[in-house]
Amino acid sequence: MPPTLASLVHHSALKLTVRAGRERLDTPVRWVHASELTDPVPYMEGGELLLITALKLDAEDADAMRQYVKRLVGAGVAGLGFAVGVHYEQIPEALADAAVEEGLPLLEVPRRTPFLAISKAVSAAIAADQYRAVTAGFAAQRELTKQALSGGPEGLLSALASQVDGWTALYDASGAVVATAPEWAGRRAARITGDVERLRERPAPASSVVGGGTEDGEDGEDYEDRVELHSLGTGRRARAALAVGTAAALGTAERYAVHSAIALLTLTTERSRSLYAAEQRIGAAVLRMLLAGHSDHARGVAGDLYGGLLDAPYRMMLAEAASASAGRARARGGAGGDAGADEMDAAKVEAAVAVLADAGGDLVGGLVEVVEFAAARSGEAVLVVPDGERVVVLAADGGEVVAACGRYAETVAMARGGSEQGADEDELVVGVSAPAGPVAAGAAYKQAEQALSVARRRGRVLVEHEEVATGSVVPLLADDAVRAFADGLLRALREHDATGRGDLVASLRAWLSRHGQWDAAAADLGVHRHTLRYRMRRVEEILGRSLDDPDVRMELWLALKATAATASATGAVSGTAGE
Predict the structure, then answer these.
(1) How do 222-232 and 207-216 pair as beta strands?
(2) Whole-number Å distance between alpha carbons of 250 and 578
(3) In this structure, are residues 482 and 513 in contact, taking their beta carbons and an 8 Å threshold?
């Protein structure tokens, strides 16, 4: 620790005597300064031991000494050393009384002790303290490195908490607490997640100091932490954050330990680019083998890299970004769609929009980060392979990775519905296969592609294959090509109806829905069956097709359903906008 007034008083060679402020001798001394100015405050930084002989001071003037001492205390002077036997044989009572009144430590310096000796003693003590700090810092670095290699991040956090005599916490990219040391620090770490999230909004590397707040401790007393936050990562966005909580500001040795921990945790959380690229190449090769039906070869190439992922039931997910213009077209013409902001909780919408903004428009990249961190936190194996503009993800069925992907998609959907800003960003679409095994990888890929296609047409963020397999075929009719076919097939009938000469489209729909039963269809329309027969002959004449042909009836029915689906979706979007 740095030198204090007490250490100088106990220095056998200096022979200093305390005349006032004995209760404050534990004050650290940052430097020694000698000045005979009547007002040396403009040249002081605080923490100095000021040495004087009172050459230009009227040290026996009580008012002058009170003002002099007040200025020194206000400037943060650690103490005042008065040399006796030079201009005064002893410390004047006016100065001593003023020092007692203000609580300023006053040391008597004997004539045989030069000011230079005091300066040398303080300088030597400061140098020794710095040397001890550097030595302790190197020792801490070795210990932290040892713990990081043997115990991982948890071991490193424990060693750091011991070094700083406090607590530590590690947060992931989402701001969630990953680990703490000691274990009881989890409650304190959770209180500052808001500060961690604000730190993540700043370009890395970033740091801040926050108060952890006051809370009742286990002993019934209140405590207030001083918490340092540091972002971890080498990219534009932080991949993690470190919190260090202590009762007081960190010293030099503790600062060395924290900086070493930051470097080690950054190395732990940031894999080298070459290693990451190599893993991606292996993952791409494994995926190609699985899709080609060579599951045994895929296992051999993967080794232990993906654990038992290739043997257990997994889900295959395809994610890609669609242009904003395509997203707006889907919002106008797609069936289903995401809920509007008026149907959501305002706070949830605001949080979702913040997530969308944090992704910086790269929603696919944001999904990859969420998937990787979910895998790291849960200990699950995951295979992430870029495939052109797509990303292919293999994850255990029912695991945390699949769940995290779903939560992320829900957040993006909520942000879309709650903010117009989302319309200007590249949108995210995700297709998820049904659970599959290694021999069914090709089928799972096709299922994910089908789900992805449906998600794109419906304006949805994420669609699972189960929805496609068990749902109605009607939403699929909202495709642009199907709508164009329906418009072309029914245009002549609509133009006929527009002249007021009959209601052929409604009559055709009623007749087809009743499977060609004349009486039932006529009753639905409220007309005589002969009238309906006449209308159907007009339909055949106008279209140039026979209604006795089952293929013709099927095409006409699908065209009518596609028209109805489009009208329903357009009305839903218009209604939401009107609200």
Answers:
(1) antiparallel
(2) 59
(3) no
